[in-house]
Amino acid sequence: VMDPGPTPADAALASEEHRRVADSIGSLTPKQREILQLRMQAGLSYREIADVTGLTTSNVGFHLHQAVASLRDQLVTA
Q: Which pLDDT value is given to residue 1?
């Protein structure tokens, strides 16, 4: 019976992609990383992030937009 799990090549590719994403996140500003983490990992709303960080909701949106745009640019060109 064949193992339906990922092949070694699939695992290596996934590991490389994970490293690229982690490196890209590491290149964000500390504020961008914090806001991205609060949104994506903690699942907080813009208002909740604003309460945690002391920023306005508009500023939260700005930082999040800049973070996502930076990650997109880095990952597309890499």
A: 63
User: CB under 8 Å to 1, separation ≥6 — which residues?
Assistant: none
39 pLDDT exceeds 80?
Answer: yes
Q: How many CB atoms lie within 10 A of CB 45?
A: 12
Write b or e for each residue in 10-23: b if 16 or more Cβ atoms lie within 10 A of its Cβ, otherwise e. eeeeeeeeeeeeee
- Of the candidates 71, 61, 70, 72, the one whose C-alpha atom is nearest the C-alpha of residue 38 is 61
CB 33 within 8 A of CB 66: no
Backbone angles phi, psi at 38, to 5 degrees: -65, -35
Q: Is the dihedral of CA 47, 44, 25, 78 positive or negative?
A: negative
